């Protein structure tokens, strides 16, 4: 069954919920709520990757996430760390995180492949071309599916060369990263063409390309909160396809969608 990865941004500036969980106590409470609502994994991040976001200092990122990871892991929850820094990844896993979710796929920090190999944890490698201040300008493709496939394959090779077992690698197409609107849809429609047999994480949550797709009179395409129903539609389609995981803000909506898909699929089984 498709896993629900609940987003927990311990940041003041994330695009959808920046500042809501910026203190450790608020973030811990939200992490527990995400779990109650059906999240299988709590993805804790201390640095915003929204378009145009500036980077934070490494020490500040660690200070933001460690108390939250320690508390949630201490409650028995499965926690992932959303970071591009090997130093943060190591500290987070030492604190109880089980998964490293690197949106740069190891490109932002050359030490990341070696560190995740040493940690022997699962790693999510996302397709990425540039940091947030520059990524929209890199939305230039002749064939987005083929280019994402090849660039992700290079990240898998780098991780494997560093000692990461291929069965520990999950691929993420990086929806919205170096892909503003139309570049995203072929990647969703042709997952098998770029996944190359790896498990897949889809993070469509409230992103700009969903706003563009649902724009109509009375709906502001710039309002991230107005994109939640569209996000749930993506979750439903991912579940129907048997995708490994979806990364979402609203864990309850995603969990409900997955339950409905499961019930529908079970209903197709012959009655005995």
Question: Brief overview, please?
Answer:
The protein has helices at residues 24-36, 58-74, 86-95, 112-119, 144-162, 184-189, 191-195, 208-214, 228-241, 251-267, and strands spanning 3-9, 41-45, 79-82, 99-102, 122-126, 169-172, 199-202, 245-248. By secondary structure, the protein is α/β, with parallel strands linked by helices.
Q: Which terms would index this structure?
A:
10 helices
Can you walk me through this structure?
The protein is an alpha/beta fold and 272 residues long. Helices cover 43% and strands 14% of the residues. It has 10 helices and 8 strands. It has an 8-stranded parallel beta barrel, surrounded by 6 helices. Helix 5 links the parallel strand 5 and strand 6 (169-172). The two termini are 23 Å apart.
- End-to-end separation in angstroms reads 23 Å
Radius of gyration: 18 Å
Helix content: 40-55%
Element order, helices and strands?
EHEHEHEHEHEHHEHHEH
Write the layout of secondary structure elements.
Blueprint: E1 3-9, H1 24-36, E2 41-45, H2 58-74, E3 79-82, H3 86-95, E4 99-102, H4 112-119, E5 122-126, H5 144-162, E6 169-172, H6 184-189, H7 191-195, E7 199-202, H8 208-214, H9 228-241, E8 245-248, H10 251-267
Parallel strand pairs: 1-2, 1-8, 2-3, 3-4, 4-5, 5-6, 6-7, 7-8
């Amino acid at each position: 069954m498709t896993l629900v990865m609940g987003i927990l941004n311990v940041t003041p500036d994330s695009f959808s919920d920046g500042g809501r969980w910026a203190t450790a106590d608020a973030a811990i409470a939200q992490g527990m709520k995400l779990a109650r609502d059906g999240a299988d994994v709590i993805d804790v991040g201390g640095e915003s990757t929204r378009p145009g976001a500036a980077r934070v200092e490494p020490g500040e990122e660690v200070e933001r996430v460690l108390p939250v990871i320690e508390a949630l892991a201490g409650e028995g929850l499965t926690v992932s760390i959303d970071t591009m820094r090997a130093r943060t990844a190591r500290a987070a896993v030492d604190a109880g995180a089980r998964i490293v979710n690197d949106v740069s796929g190891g490109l932002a920090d050359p030490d990341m492949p070696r560190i995740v190999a040493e940690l022997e944890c699962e790693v999510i490698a996302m397709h990425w071309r540039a940091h947030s201040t520059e990524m929209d300008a890199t939305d230039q493709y002749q064939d987005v599916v083929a280019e994402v496939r090849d660039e992700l394959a290079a990240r898998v090779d780098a991780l494997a060369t560093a000692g990461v077992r291929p069965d520990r690698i999950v691929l993420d197409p990086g929806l919205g990263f170096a892909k503003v609107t139309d570049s995203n849809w072929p990647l969703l429609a042709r997952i098998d063409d770029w996944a190359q047999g790896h498990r897949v994480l889809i993070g469509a949550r409230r992103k700009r390309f969903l706003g563009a797709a649902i724009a109509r009179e009375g709906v502001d395409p710039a309002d991230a909160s107005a994109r939640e129903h569209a996000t749930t539609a993506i979750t439903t389609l991912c579940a129907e396809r048997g995708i490994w995981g979806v990364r979402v803000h609203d864990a309850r909506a995603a969990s409900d969608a997955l339950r409905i898909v499961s019930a529908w699929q079970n209903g197709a089984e012959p009655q005995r």
